[in-house]
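Appendix B. Extra example for self-study. Work through it before the problem class; the solution is given directly after the inputs so you can check yourself.
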Amino acid sequence: MIIVMRLQATPDEVQKVEQEIESIGLRPFINPGVERKVIAVLGEVDVHKADLAEHFSMMAGVERVELISQLWKLTSRSYHPEDTIVDVAGVKIGGKQLTITAGPCSVENEQQTLEVAEAVKSAGAHLFRGGAFKPRTSPYSFQGLGEEGLKILAKAREKTGLPIITEVMDTHEVELVAKYADILQVGTRNMQNYALLKKVGATGQPVLLKRGLGSKVRDLLMSAEYIMAEGNNKVILCERGITTFEDSCRNTTDINAIPVLKNWTHLPVMVDPSHATGDWRYVGPIALAAVAAGADGLLIEVHNDPSRALSDGPQSLKPKRFAELMGQISKIAEVVNRQCGTGS
Amino acid sequence: MIIVMRLQATPDEVQKVEQEIESIGLRPFINPGVERKVIAVLGEVDVHKADLAEHFSMMAGVERVELISQLWKLTSRSYHPEDTIVDVAGVKIGGKQLTITAGPCSVENEQQTLEVAEAVKSAGAHLFRGGAFKPRTSPYSFQGLGEEGLKILAKAREKTGLPIITEVMDTHEVELVAKYADILQVGTRNMQNYALLKKVGATGQPVLLKRGLGSKVRDLLMSAEYIMAEGNNKVILCERGITTFEDSCRNTTDINAIPVLKNWTHLPVMVDPSHATGDWRYVGPIALAAVAAGADGLLIEVHNDPSRALSDGPQSLKPKRFAELMGQISKIAEVVNRQCGTGS
Amino acid sequence: MIIVMRLQATPDEVQKVEQEIESIGLRPFINPGVERKVIAVLGEVDVHKADLAEHFSMMAGVERVELISQLWKLTSRSYHPEDTIVDVAGVKIGGKQLTITAGPCSVENEQQTLEVAEAVKSAGAHLFRGGAFKPRTSPYSFQGLGEEGLKILAKAREKTGLPIITEVMDTHEVELVAKYADILQVGTRNMQNYALLKKVGATGQPVLLKRGLGSKVRDLLMSAEYIMAEGNNKVILCERGITTFEDSCRNTTDINAIPVLKNWTHLPVMVDPSHATGDWRYVGPIALAAVAAGADGLLIEVHNDPSRALSDGPQSLKPKRFAELMGQISKIAEVVNRQCGTGS
Amino acid sequence: MIIVMRLQATPDEVQKVEQEIESIGLRPFINPGVERKVIAVLGEVDVHKADLAEHFSMMAGVERVELISQLWKLTSRSYHPEDTIVDVAGVKIGGKQLTITAGPCSVENEQQTLEVAEAVKSAGAHLFRGGAFKPRTSPYSFQGLGEEGLKILAKAREKTGLPIITEVMDTHEVELVAKYADILQVGTRNMQNYALLKKVGATGQPVLLKRGLGSKVRDLLMSAEYIMAEGNNKVILCERGITTFEDSCRNTTDINAIPVLKNWTHLPVMVDPSHATGDWRYVGPIALAAVAAGADGLLIEVHNDPSRALSDGPQSLKPKRFAELMGQISKIAEVVNRQCGTGS
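Solution. Structure tokens for the complete assembly:
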């Protein structure tokens, strides 16, 4: 931690900061800069450093406090240099294998779900996705089938062998969803629902954590830290578009976040081009871009009849287009030294 | 609803859209524009129109669908022209009275809480705020005292007579918090935690809903709609800063949102300059600006010893500075035809 | 300057950084932190420090370089603690007086211009604004009357005595505009047109510099630094809205920028609520908010027939509404210890 | 154009809007919606429609005006369905060929420039880039060699045969830069410097137009429209990162903008991953992503000694790393059906 004093700080103010540093068992070191006083704080500053930094920033004469290292720890690559590989019923996420998740936005009924599941399976997807509990901006929109939807998802798994991933929106439903799902998804609107993060962390099951629309990469890592702090290291991060001034797409895919996250953390990083663009015409290019940039996997919405979809139809691909896209994805994967086969 | 066809749409595509409109009991009307075909959808399009718009936007030949009126209804001023006034144990929010809420970010212990409560009461505050359950970005930061904190808040109410407002972060805790609080606060990170919105809506108690960091004004209204759809019209909206590229303050106070919200909705609008700036030096100017722009009230963090605060010290005012600010607030209130007295 | 080394930096890498620091005549000091090596650079690091920081950030083993003080100098309050007051033909901007500039977006013809000028003068405005050269997003929109417009502005000044402010868009036109204008306006789209900044700086005339839509407060100060580096300290800054994800108004007024700028710089700060909102219904509330937050003045668009205006009609006030607003502005000014009389 | 009336609009207000439509030679058609009155404007609404829309939006009883088609025309794919291919001394931009531009941020001296030019040529680049006039945020940073730099660039072209692209920052310098450059670059800070756009348009030479940091895709097209309105259709668009709340990279690469632009316009689209990330470690992944998403070319900064670069060292690749990247780029190009050979 580095404490930068104001240009006009008095000797007395500097001294008080030094005493305060010593009073908490650390050592101050004054860098005798020409411009202004800068005090380095020596000693073990632990994970509580954010609170400490706030404390010092309130003291008289202090201009600001700079933290030298990041606030996250369990999620940091500095402390865990090797890539984490999350194993989901044999499907590995985060290693050499590129992992493709596909399926409809919502589980609408058994027939639709099984049809799409068969289609994405035969196109080469590794995981099946579908929403039973749906977070909708409007209270009047379709909210999902609930447990009925979970049962249909389980049937789809039975038929295709694909592990399933589905969203959990509330602490009350974690137990229920965990009974059916292979991966628990925490959605973008709940990225900082800390009660939910703790609860899914405590299940020990794999968790896919979607980045909030207005959340920085560093906030995403802090939310992942909440899950890992519960002893659960099976966390998969997901970039799904952020909110910016650009309005030609629903959101702006933060493609930079992929190499940044791969640099900062050991956790696998997936990308959801369907939600990030909101437009099926752009899903293909952005899916390929994500793989080229180093993503560990993709979440793609596929629906057998998008114009009849009960949610997010405009961003869903038809199975045929998805199958074609899988062909291109595999080739891009090879160029960046990944595999996209089903491993069979 | 207006359906704009592509420049290259075929007569067959136009006809199919017309048939689809009729099939759901509405009437199509083609505006014979020179540039391109535009189809108006006549008839009662209800609150499900967002889903309908998605549906049509997927049809062949359609470029885009424009909704004519907004998606919110219960929160809309069009349907409820008069200002809603929320009555909290006799304190009125949303009328001629300007309502000031003040208190520490976190409830830390009884002595601190009671001291601050007395101080803000004597400076003229109408409501007392303090966090018992704290949403913190880092899992290692102080998370609040929980029920112990609620009990201390209740004591502060007993001593000062000020109704209390405190945050609830999880559906599991709604019942508990509702037992102590006069106003339930839904924080910025939970603005789209729909399970929580429904649950606080169902209590029938006043709810203060903070805008999400990355949420548009229209999304805030949709979240309020969730609460009102439960039959609870005691909703107070709160602007508390949004996330933008500007980094000189923690967030950017969206001052424009105040007159926009007053125009679009009948619900009261409060502003939290402490979180919106993150810096006590800027709290005063932004508080005054919010009142001048037409806010119905303010939430201001006050702490008797900010540098010892367990959370958000840097943005807290000392009681003396708060009292001075109250003087200026009262005068600005008068200019914009509001009152800020305690009514006694 | 503080150089933070990577956790894995080798002793050799650290040594090379130290040698490089010495080779440019400065002294390295290693802060023996527990977490990682941090090297302070001691000695006079001047305005070229940005280039130096880039240089060190490229060296092996370096994680990042933190600058201790800001990059701006002439504009900084640290080096010039007293407020700068810009005198424009007797009208003072930046002192106790609040300065109101009003007028139409574009100069359209002599009659309209003189009418509006008389109206704003009698309502108490101190300066008259109007565009002769108009930056329009579309090449097909009205581009302004050019020199003819400047002549009309000069007539308005003659009739009313109000000094005039008008935009200059190109280095070729600086001389021409400077012949007529009392204040040269550099528009939001040209905030980083450095050739133009240098040229208006060299005139020695007062310059109003509008913040770019996508520019941080610190970038605005760097652009002001370009003008001041030409020996011209008559610079007035202007907040006019930034581009964010919120789309309920044309732009988001960054109200926080007012106290931040007043803290960081000695230059006067004006606000343009007309462009910042793009909607006449919101101009009044935001104008009052800006004054309450500490702005030194306002730019307000006034048109005698907004629906016939050749540009920006939707954000213009009619003279009657402007006169009413001036009454409220004066009262708010008093609360924050400013005067808004015409000084007569 | 569609005019949406307020819910409370009076019959008289509706009639006045209809009369106004007729008075300008167009025909009104009222869509008798249940919710509120919607008036379609029939007839030829030309490029002045933005002004017209503003006019109607000011009339009493009008809520808002929706334009049915976009404001750009010459740049629109609707009016020019085939891809535009810009030919620069035999190098084609916008067709099947992927075009790679590489070189140092600044021209520093002859030796450095020629070394880098030879290196990028032998790695397979098609165009050489380098700045002689440099837009720097700080007036104290290196501002470029000016004409001396242009002469060095011309020598590099002579030696390598690579056409050169370099930035022009001011109307005064257009003639000079056009004498040496094959492509005139308009930088991000000048995207809305309309005087400059007109002047480079008038040269008839190819222009590379970089998107502004705070500019929407639609604003980029309007700026391109300025150049094309001068009769110059040799316009190349360039995405180079936008400003958002995310601060882990210098800017956020708007990867979605690539397929959006390819959909909306016939002009070629290049991407500059060096400026968009500001960090050489991320240039490779983002370059590959851009090609995968459908970009027509790339601009990549290459420097033989980045830590000694006079500008933007941190984002420059060494020649060896650039050559490796070219290998990957070629392979990705093939997957998306493009070629990246030098055509020899």
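Self-check: Chain D has two domains: 2-66, 86-335. If your reasoning did not lead you there, revisit section 3.
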